[in-house]
Specification:
The complex is a heterodimer of chains A (304) and B (315). Chain A is of the alpha/beta class and 304 residues long. Chain A is built from 6 helices and 17 strands. In chain A, the strands form 3 sheets. In chain A, strands 1, 2, 3, 4, 5, 6, 7 and 8 form an 8-stranded antiparallel beta sheet that branches. Chain A starts with a helix and ends in a 9-residue tail after the last strand. Chain B has one domain (13-65, 83-205, 226-307): TIM Barrel, CATH 3.20.20. Helix content of chain B is 29%, strand content 19%. In chain B, the strands form 4 sheets. An 8-stranded parallel barrel of chain B has the order 3-4-7-8-9-10-15-16, surrounded by 6 helices. In chain B, strands 5-6-14-11 form a 4-stranded antiparallel beta sheet, with no helix packed on it. In chain B, strands 1-2 form a two-stranded antiparallel ribbon. In chain B, β7 (107-111), α2 (116-127) and β8 form a beta-alpha-beta unit. In chain B, α2 (116-127) packs parallel to α4 (155-168) and α7 (259-267) crosses α9. Classes of the chains: A alpha/beta (304), B alpha/beta (315). The interface between A and B is large, with 50 and 54 residues.
């Protein structure tokens, strides 16, 4: 086509870390369509963007600029919750589900319809769809439900059967139950205080559920690190493939700053007698580029 | 704002500069560690528009970097303790340089060594690599145990490292200085005397943040380097002091987010600037700063950027 193709192709060859799926990322100007509170301290923002619909994959995220001023400085990452509304080659309506946790999200909660938005995305590597038929088990902890819903939608489109587990501290932190039910999934809930559904940790509920399931095909989890760790252990003990979506403090979202890395079991270059060797050990991977979705076996869970 | 392939940028002659023989089409470069190896930004930024690209710092062997969490946002800034994670010299030359040299933008390799000998080795091996216009010698990283500030905070050590590199490199060398020193002029003069072709400053300011709830440090490394708009006034003061201490070109770095920020450094005497943390917030920051500087020159009747360099009016 033009020299752009050359640049793109070479960049693919020169580094395996360049995103292979989808187009983009794009730096675009979007418009806020709606931003309602769904339950106290949780908001759902829908925004119109010129990003082609086909370039999104469940599990990917966008980074939204909070302010033109120097504070708050950095963009905030949000997993794509859903694509609802405009879905064309020329543009898509992206929905994000977010919780107020600090200054940035506090400001966002006050944004009104029509506000112009500075959006970078789609970013990162999303979920891989299972190749094996059978029951897909989606596990969300708290705000983790945000990114898993996009996966549920995609699974429905591919005719895959889903069981969804949603956990939270109290019933006020259980999100997306109706949305998942609307997809035809059977939804199970767990709260630590027992105010809704199973009393206890969602991972315990998943463990007993899997015992009675003849052929679970895959686990897909997003939530607090403690929950992900438990789910990874269950997956390992029962030899079920498991993908986890991780969160990390992030600056650029593009793989440049190396600020968001997590420890993975990887090859580590070590130097002995002037020669570099690659030994099994710890290596750091970028949540924004090699993630945010990882195979749970890839993560070094000991120090996370 | 989407990337639609390389535009045909109109490179204004009034913006072109020469730093120790490196010809730049404009005075705006990407700061080391904030623009990866260029490829991370190629779908968003037209790399041909940039004045120069300073790569992520390279060491002889690959480095793992520090344990996470590595970054934390603070008031108008961020603290990082990346710890110079990088692919190492061999992979840099094999995988990264061929990509970067496709563009009409000079590539300056940032180098880091734990010893003077390592710096020499890096300089030697990079000297005949096509596509590298010059070296930036990083003697100011606050996040590594060896080297780094050990060299950058001691005029004698700084002199030794720079002289060693200079003897092994034909290409121009820029020495990147740390703000974490009592008197910047001593270091600036020492590296000038040792043969530096230019200096760039500042690297990050050593900093720390604590979570009062858990009473834990917010970085695993406890201490890191502060960057972003919060450090700009400090950077500007240090650049001003350095400009008055040395004859070699000074490149200003520190919290530049807008064209106005860059102009402050240029007026204070910096012949060029590097943009760092702004790339994280706005990937297209460099291009917007380039356009803004040029608009300023046109509007205020400057024929060339050099007329503005050091034009500070002192009462």
């Amino acid at each position: 086509m033009n020299s752009y193709e050359t640049i793109k192709d070479r960049s693919m060859n020169s580094s395996p870390s360049v995103a292979k799926e989808g187009g983009g990322p794009y730096l675009v100007c979007g418009t806020l369509l709606e931003n309602p509170m769904v339950v106290p301290s949780y908001y759902k923002m829908r925004m119109r963007t010129p990003i082609p619909y086909g370039d999104f994959h469940p599990g990917q995220f966008v980074m939204v600029r909070i302010s033109e001023e120097p504070f708050p400085l950095l963009r905030r990452p949000f997993s794509i919750h859903s694509l609802r509304g405009l879905r064309t080659k020329e543009g898509s309506d992206i929905e994000i589900l977010y919780k107020i946790v600090g200054k940035g999200t506090n400001l966002m909660a006050n944004w009104k319809r029509g506000k112009r938005l500075d959006i970078l995305g789609p970013l990162g590597k999303g979920f891989s769809l299972p190749t094996k038929k059978g029951v897909q088990v989606l596990i969300a902890g708290g705000i983790g439900a945000a990114g898993l819903f996009a996966l549920g939608q995609k699974m429905k489109a591919f005719g895959l059967q889903c069981s969804v587990f949603i956990g939270g501290k109290t019933k006020e932190h259980i999100l997306c139950v109706d949305e998942f039910r609307a997809l035809g999934a059977d939804v199970h809930m767990a709260t630590e205080d027992g105010s809704l559904g199973f009393r206890g940790m969602v991972s315990d509920m998943v463990r007993s559920f899997l015992h009675n399931l003849p052929d679970p095909s895959g686990l897909f989890a997003c939530g607090p690190v403690g929950m992900l760790k438990s789910i990874a252990e269950i997956a390992k003990s029962q030899s079920i493939p498991c993908q986890v979506s991780l969160e990390s403090r992030m600056a650029c979202g593009l793989g440049a700053c190396l600020g968001c890395v997590i420890r993975t079991k990887g090859e580590r270059p070590t130097k002995s007698q002037g020669e570099t060797r690659h030994e099994k050990g710890v290596s750091y991977k970028r949540v924004c580029k090699e993630g945010p979705v990882f195979d749970s076996e890839e993560i070094d869970w000991r120090k996370i | 704002m989407t990337y639609e392939g390389p535009k045909s940028p109109s490179h204004s002659p009034r913006m072109s500069i020469d730093i120790a023989g490196i010809k730049l089409k404009n005075p705006v470069m990407t700061a080391s560690g904030t623009f990866g190896y260029g490829e991370e930004f190629v779908r968003i930024v037209d790399l041909n528009r940039l004045g120069g690209i300073i790569t992520k710092g390279i060491s002889i062997e690959p480095m793992e970097g520090n344990s996470p969490p590595r970054i934390v946002e603070t008031a108008s800034g961020m603290i990082n303790s990346i710890g110079l994670q990088n692919v190492g010299l061999q992979a840099f030359i094999r995988d990264k340089v061929p990509f970067l040299r496709q563009f009409k933008t000079p590539v300056i390799a940032s180098i880091f060594g734990a010893t003077a000998g390592e710096f020499r080795e890096l300089a030697k091996r990079l000297d005949d690599v096509p596509g590298i216009a010059g070296l930036e010698v990083n003697i100011s990283c606050p996040n590594v145990a060896k080297g780094g500030l050990l060299f950058g905070a001691d005029p004698k050590m700084a002199h030794l490292v720079v002289r060693t590199v200079k003897r092994s490199a034909y290409r121009p060398i820029i020495v990147k200085l740390s703000p974490n020193v009592t008197d910047i002029t001593l270091i600036a003069k020492a590296v000038e005397e040792a043969g530096a072709d230019a200096i760039s400053l500042i690297n990050t300011l050593m900093a720390m943040a604590v979570d009062p709830q858990s009473r834990r440090p917010l970085l695993d490394n406890i201490i890191g380097g502060l960057s972003g708009p919060a450090i700009k006034p400090v950077a500007l003061r240090l650049v001003w002091e350095a400009v008055n201490a040395v004859q070699i070109p000074v490149i200003g770095i520190g919290g530049i987010m807008t064209p106005e920020d860059a102009l402050e450094f240029i007026i204070a005497g910096a012949c060029a600037v590097q943009v760092g943390t702004a790339n994280f917030v706005n990937p297209n920051a460099c291009v917007e700063i380039i356009d803004g500087i040029e608009a300023y020159l046109v509007k205020n009747g400057f024929q060339h950027i050099n007329e503005l360099v050091g034009s500070l009016k002192i009462p």
